Amino acid sequence: MTGWQPTPMVPHPDKRIVQSILGHPNRLVLVAIGVFFLMHLYRLTAPPNGYHHWRESDTAAVILNYFQEGMNFLEPRVNQRGTTSGITGMELPLFNFTAALLYQITGPNHAVARMLTILAACLCLWFFFRLIAILTNDREAAFATWAMAFSPLFFFYSYKIMPDLWMLTFCLTSIYLYVRFHSNRRYFHWVASVLCLSLAGSIKPLGLSIYLPYLVHLWSNKQKRLRDVVLYCAYISLTVGPVLVWMQYARWLQETYGVYAFYLGGHLGSFLEYLFSTQFVKKLVLQWPAELWVGWVLAPAFLYGLYRAARVRRYALYFVWILSIYIVFAITAMKSSTHDYYTMIIVPPLAAITGSGLYRLYTSGSWRRIIVTTLLLLAPVGAFLRIHHRLGPTDDYDAIRAAAEKIIPEHSLVAIQDDTPAIRLYQLNRKGWPLVKGVRFNEIAELIRVGAKFLIVDQPLDTLDSRWPEILNTTPLELGPLYCYRAKDLN
Question: Which of 84, 110, 197, 392 keeps 20 to 30 A from 226, CA to CA?
């Protein structure tokens, strides 16, 4: 007679699914990218809106002007142009030009530009996974990729019509290829890395901060040879050179055509003034690391990863990477402390440390795996809740643009009241002058003399100045919530 045998425990189906995903790094990464992609389909067709609405409008205007006025890559145009051609210097307009090429097929569609950002973000996550897998292991890399995907800052700007995600994607791809080169000595990877970093730097030079980690890696290599030193110097020359050439060309465009729509740098002293401000310390040291760069949900895993990384020598390169980025933040303090998208380059090394914390927790015991699973499930929710208030209303956007098409001839110049240089001109799809400093009679009279045909304001003219009938027809044309007035001929 056989003794009683206990019935083997069979995991719950939901538990088996979770284990099958967490136990296979590639599956976890694909799930992370899939969830990330699906969440970004929300409001895919929305026009520029919400937080940094003005920067989206600037980018979208260049795209639309390529489509409407000519596909000359070297002559990007903006709407805030007055009587000029609108040609201006800016960051490398690769994102804008690519979107305009697709407009040739689809017609103007904000979903096209947003999808370019989303797909770049997905590609960025994949190369980040491959990079961290080389530096550590597949499972830790998968956790790091999940952490990066649902960093609130990365999550938000993966939705915007802006070139910054392309910069980050080129930068991380370049780092991955550089690491691959040092592992297999295939010069194709070295050349491709140079190309990607040149493109990243020409969009925004922030990615050039990677030179310091590369130098530390070279210096720590006990088998370093003269050839490695020469290659490092050549790498710097070949990546900095194209960036300097493009930036110099962009400055020349601004000076030649007189349109200064994009900031291309200034005196170092003007940046450093912000370095010692309370705003720099508050945002880049106290507030943004947990709130935006990592996210409150994964902050405990980041702190645990930080503790573990500080005790393991092979993670020293992460700290050098972070240090090099903070040096760039200090040099660009005027922008990095006021425009959070300038700080997106710090998300990858922080995500790598967070991934280390998640990995150590996951491999430390069954109850800690429950903590890791909970954190991973809550991270997408936390990211969405953190950034949702940044999305703005778009209800009347298309209606106002359609009304403008009816009452304002296509080539008529307008003067329009706006808080920023770009938002309303792009919304109306018209060119002219943004009235950022208010509506003043003498200024409007002069603009009418040089070519303005319409004035568009927030409130009726009779509440501003009694002299308006001298230069404008005072019966407003219907333009949604705005008041549109036709100019009289003053010449």
Answer: 197
